[in-house]
Amino acid sequence: MKNKIWLSSPHMGGEELKYIQEAFDTNWVAPLGPNVTNFEDDLKKYLNRDSNIAALSSGTAALHIALILSGVKKEDEVICQSMTFSASANPIVYQGALPVFLDSEQDTWNMCPMHLEAAIEDRISKGKKPKAIIVVDLYGMPAKMDEISSIAKRYKITLIEDAAEALGSSYKGRKCGTFGDFGILSFNGNKIITTSGGGALVCKTKEMKEKAIFLATQARDEAPHYQHSQIGYNYRMSNVLAGIGRGQMEVLDEYVKLRRANNSFYKEIFKNVEGVTVFEEPNKDYFSNHWLSCARVDKEVAGFSSEDLRLVLLNNNIESRPLWKPMHLQPVFKNAPYYGNKVAEELFNCGLCLPSGSNLSTEDKKRIESVIKNFI
Ligand SMILES: *Cc1c(COP(=O)(O)O)cnc(C)c1O
Questions:
Q1: Which domain holds residue 326?
Q2: What is the number of the ligand 1 atom nearest to the C-alpha of 136?
Q3: 193 alpha carbon – ligand 1 mean position (Å)
Q4: How far is CA 274 from CA 154, 219, 270, 296, 299, in A?
C-alpha cells in the first residue's frame, strides 16, 4: 500500500528545534518564559499592532476565557454558528450557559447575518438578550464581518471571532482574529501552523490580556502566599511549545501560499466536472488561507456522491472527510434552540474536505489527481 496522504498534518519549518533548544539551555521549561513572550509578539506583529495576544494551552481554552471575560454566566444565552467544530460551542456549556445555534449562508458557509438579527430579536422577545456571539471563519473563509459586527454593535452584544482555522486569512485587508471584541486562534496539530497543542486569545486592550493571563494562571491575587478571590484555570502555553510556534511563524506566509495553491489544484481537477464545485472566496473582499480545500458534490448532476468520492480516496489510502456536522444536529445539543433553514445541513450532506496540507508533495498531488480522475 502506498503511504498515507493525510487531510492536514503538522509541517515543521526548520527552526523550531532551535527555539526549543533555547528553552532547555536556559531551563525555561515552564508555562511562561521568553518563547511565550516572543511568540505573542510575533502574532501581534502578524495580526496588527493593536492586538494584545495571550498564548494559551488550546483554542478551546481561549474560547472559554473569552466567554468568562464577556461576563457569560450560568443560564445566559450565547449565539453560536452551528456549522463548526464542537470546540466552538463546548465552552458555552462549561460556563453553564445555553448555546443558541444559527444557520450558515451560501457565500462563506459561515453565520448568516439575517438569521443573526432574527435570532437576537426573538431571544429578546422571549425575555433574554444573548450575552455573546461566536462567529467562525470556517476552513479559513472569513465570515461576513461587516454585517455581523454591525449587528453585534447595534445590539451591544460581545462578539467573539473563532479564527482557529483562519490564521493568515483576511477580510477587506484586515486579518482574521482581529474582528471581534475577542478573537481566538488554535495551534492544534492539524491547523495551518501548530505548537502540537496550543491556542491564543486576541484582546483589544492590554488590560483584557492581563485579565486573561490572570485567569489562565490560577487567578492568584497579589500576595506572597497563595491567595484567591476568583476561580482560576491552568490554561497558559508552555515555553517549550511556544518555541515550536516561533519557528512556525517564520513559515506561516509560505504555508498560506501552499494551502492556497492546493485550492487552485482542486479547482483545476474539477473545472470541467459538472456537479462538483470547489469552495472559493465569493469576491475580492475575502482572502482565505484555504486551511482545508472543500468541494460540494451535487449527486444528481455529478452521478456520484461526496461519500462515493471519500470511499474511493480512502481505498487508495488518501484521507478526506465530510464537512463539520452542524451542532444543532449533534445528539449532545439536541435541546438547544436553532434559527435558520437547511443550508448547514445540506453542506454537511454534500461536502467533502480534501487533503490540504502545506506538506503535500508533487508526488502526493499526482496520486490524488489520478485517483480522482480515474474515478470520474
Ligand atoms: C480547532 C478548532 C478549535 C479548537 O482549538 P483547539 O486548539 O483544538 O482547542 C475551535 N474552533 C474551531 C473552529 C476549530 O477548528
A1: 252-375
A2: 13
A3: 12
A4: 43, 57, 8, 11, 10
Are 242 and 258 members of one domain? no
Atom 2 of ligand 1, nearest CA residue: 164
Shared domain check, 158 and 139: yes
**15-26 burial: b if 16+ Cβ within 10 Å, else e:** bbeebbebbeee
DSSP annotation of 285: T
Give the chain's domain count: 2
Distance 8 CA to ligand 1 centre (A): 14
CB-based pocket (< 6 A), ligand 1? 58-60, 84-85, 87-88, 136, 162, 164-165, 186, 188, 199
Residues 31 and 175 in one domain: yes
223 CA from centroid of ligand 1 (Å): 35
Nearest to 88 by CA among 118, 122, 60, 124: 60
Question: Has residue 8 been placed in a domain?
Answer: no
Same domain for 216 and 113: yes
Q: Specify the residue for cell string 483584557.
A: 208
Residues 101 and 78 in one domain: yes
Examine the fold and report which residue of 214, 249, 284 is the final residue of a domain before the chain moves on.
249
Complete DSSP assignment for 188-210: -TTSSS--SS-EEEEESSHHHHH
Q: How far is the CA of 88 from the centre of ligand 1 (A)?
A: 7
Q: What is the DSSP letter of 333?
A: G
Digits of tens for pLDDT over the chain (376 positions)?
689 999 999 999 989 999 999 999 999 988 889 999 999 999 999 998 789 999 999 999 999 999 999 999 999 999 999 999 999 999 999 999 999 999 999 999 999 999 999 999 999 999 999 999 999 999 999 999 999 999 999 999 999 999 999 999 999 999 999 999 999 999 999 999 999 999 999 999 999 999 999 999 999 999 999 999 999 999 999 999 999 999 999 999 999 999 999 999 999 999 999 999 999 999 999 999 999 999 999 999 999 999 999 999 999 999 999 999 999 999 999 999 999 999 999 999 999 999 999 999 999 999 999 999 999 9
What's the pTM?
0.97
* Domain assignment of residue 5, yes or no: no
Q: Which atom of ligand 1 is nearest to the CA of 165?
A: 15
Boundary residue ending a domain (233, 249, 265): 249
Calculate how far, in angstroms, residue 198's C-alpha sits from the geometric centre of ligand 1.
9
Q: Do 338 and 202 share a structural domain?
A: no
241 and 260 in a single domain? The answer is no
Adjacent-strand bridge partners of 287? 170
159 and 35 co-located in one domain: yes
Ligand 1 pocket test: pick from 57, 137, 188, 241 the residue with the most ligand atoms within 8 Å of its Cβ. 188
